Amino acid sequence: MPETTVGRRERKKAATRQALADAALNLFLERGYDQVSLRDIAEAADVSTTTLFKHFPGKEALVFDEDSDQQAALVAAVSDRAPGQSIPQALREHIKRVRIRPDDSDARLTAFIELVKNTAALADYAHRMWMRHQDALARAIAADIGAPADDPHCGALARFALEARNLGHVGDAPLRAVDAAFDLLEHGWNPALPAPVDPLSRLDTAGPG
User: Fold this and answer.
1) 107 or 73: which carries more pLDDT confidence?
2) What's the CATH number where 47 sits?
3) CA-CA distance, 17 to 106, in Å (whole number)?
4) What's the structural domain count of the chain?
5) Looking at residue 118, which CATH number applies to its domain?
6) Are residues 74 and 155 in the same domain?
7) How does pLDDT run across 48-64, given as a tens digit for each residue?
8) Is 126 within a domain?
9) Eight-class DSSP state of 81
């Protein structure tokens, strides 16, 4: 098959996929996620539901379409970091840069963030998709330090680094929360911080009665 024909077909598939994603987001923002069906999205994009399923496995996937790009960026944050920069430092910078955060100057982005945050199905899906990168990130860390691919320390660092991004979605000081998580990853628990009190320990000193 001529290369031009293949290229044209791929461009058409990409255009259809983008049209579906755009139609879905427009409808979700306009009506709410639960009020939009897959048929509504297919009709808005002027395709059949069969075509929709060729590009996306379900409603949630229509909202998040950057999975492979995110994984590549995470791996690059480790493998392409600056000389002298530790892996946790590089991941801290990357997580703070890519965490989803509303921009007050972009009303559409702000609406999208609110949609995800207030729709349990989307919030859960976003978290699952993000955490799917754990194995790839762990392997990149292991390869960088010359450890076995299944090294548990590398797996733990990858897991906790990815989970740290969720702290950047809540609270009044999200960047501080992310920094606190990475401070723990880099330096461990600071014994100068107050330790949690075990309620049962009070029974030992309270005395009788």
Assistant:
1) 73
2) 1.10.10.60
3) 24
4) 2
5) 1.10.357.10
6) yes
7) 999 999 999 889 888 87
8) yes
9) P
pLDDT at 209: 46
Tokens of 1: 């098959």
pLDDT category of residue 118 using cuts at 50, 70 and 90: confident
Residues 6+ apart with CB under 8 A from 72: none
Q: How far apart are CA 151 and CA 154, in angstroms?
A: 5
**Stretch 12-38: mean pLDDT, rounded?**
91
Tokens of 4: 């031009």
49, 42 contact by CB (below 8 A): yes
Q: Which residues contact 181 (CB under 8 A, 6 or more apart)?
A: 160, 163, 164, 167
Query: Given CA atoms 9, 11, 17, 23 in this order, what sign does their dihedral have?
Result: negative
Structure tokens at 90: 């590089």
Residue 129 sits in the same domain as residue 73: yes
Q: Answer yes or no: do 95 and 145 share one domain.
A: yes
CA-CA distance, 77 to 209, in Å (whole number)? 59
| Angle (nearest 5°) at CA 62 between 61 and 63 | 90
Q: Tell me whether residue 113 is exposed, middle or buried, using C-beta atoms within 10 angstroms of its C-beta: 0 to 12, 13 to 18, 19 or more.
A: middle
